[in-house]
Amino acid sequence: MRIDGKVVLITGASEGIGAACAAEFARSGAKLSLTARSEEGLRRAAGSDGLVTVGDLTGEQTRRQVVERTVERFGAIDILINNAGVGFYLPSWRAPMELTRGLMELNFFALLGMTQLVVPHMRARRSGMIVNVSSIGGKMTLPWMTLYSASKYAVGSLTEGLRMELRRDGIKTMLVCPGYVKTGFQQHVTAGQAPETLVRTRRMAITAAECALAIRRGVERNARTIITPKPGWILVFLSRLFPAIVEARMAAMNETA
Ligand SMILES: NC(=O)c1ccc[n+]([C@@H]2O[C@H](COP(=O)([O-])OP(=O)(O)OC[C@H]3O[C@@H](n4cnc5c(N)ncnc54)[C@H](OP(=O)(O)O)[C@@H]3O)[C@@H](O)[C@H]2O)c1
């Protein structure tokens, strides 16, 4: 899809990957509609022309407001980037239910809620693209973040299903699976901390700008899935071909927690 002149709605755009996407898509000529809880971050990312809607995306009112305001201002939504997300490092067998529901509420239900509000507008115009930010943890389960992985697997399945459901409506979907990206994500986890071995493997990390560039290029070529950085594909294939070996390695890494 061409980006120039398109209306792009980005969730979780006050910092990190979302804010970097705002900069990347604006450079390509997109009109921005951004949402998150921090007004200051959103204003910085939106520049002088972007639309800003402040609120907690787990609330239906915020979701309705951002979609209505975007359509009112720009008349359409061409690309929805469902990016807002959070994680925590706790074993699934003892993670508090309330914390887990909070994770699912943002990573899955808010994303689904935004999609349900935006799709009718896209169907009416028989065009659009929904970009769902998952994680490499949505392609291979990370034992130090099992429930985060579960939320991202759900996002992956939803993205595939939507693609098939909406094929005849001219609406595309793209799944984004980043590896480690240098953002505030680690500071924003709602509980626990990463195992030591994992901290050491973060040398492979990419910047939010690099991640946003991969997303923009993915949108332009109508990609189904992007894994960034690219060596992530190798990890995913290895986990499919040799699941027992990969699981044993990951379990060992997790045991240093
Ligand atoms: N960083 C990584 O290594 C990595 C790797 C794979 C996948 N991802 C995924 O990439 C996405 C973006 O992560 P990031 O690394 O950019 O994290 P980040 O720097 O923590 O940014 C998260 C964004 O989500 C917003 N947000 C959080 N809770 C919200 C809520 N309840 N309502 C509305 N907005 C909310 C935050 O804004 P406010 O605080 O202002 O609301 C912020 O703009 C997430 O889905 C994450 O799972 C990240």
Description:
The protein is α/β, with parallel strands linked by helices and 257 residues long. It is built from nine helices and nine strands. It has one domain (7-254): NAD(P)-binding Rossmann-like Domain (Rossmann fold, 3-Layer(aba) Sandwich). The protein starts with 6 loop residues before the first strand and ends with a helix. The model has no long low-confidence stretch (mean pLDDT 96). Helix 3 runs parallel beside helix 4. It has helices at 16-27, 39-46, 60-74, 97-125, 146-165, 196-201, 208-220, 231-241, 243-254; strands at 7-11, 31-36, 51-54, 79-82, 128-133, 171-178, 181-182, 206-207, 225-228.
CATH topology name, in short, is: Rossmann fold
Q: What is the structural class?
A: alpha/beta
Q: Over all CA atoms, what is the radius of gyration?
A: 18 Å
What would you say the CATH architecture is? 3-Layer(aba) Sandwich
Average pLDDT works out at: 96
* Residue share in helix: 40-55%
The spatial strand order of the largest sheet comes to 3-2-1-4-5-6-9
Number of domains: 1
Please outline the major beta sheet. 7 strands, parallel
Q: Which strand-content bin applies to the residues?
A: 15-25%
The total strand number stands at: 9
Top CATH class: Alpha Beta
Question: What is the N-to-C succession of helices and strands?
Answer: EHEHEHEHEHEEHEHEHH
User: Overall 3D geometry?
Assistant: globular
**Count of DSSP-assigned helices:** 9
CATH level 4 superfamily: NAD(P)-binding Rossmann-like Domain
Task: Tell me which ligands are bound.
Answer: NADP nicotinamide-adenine-dinucleotide phosphate
Low-confidence stretches: none
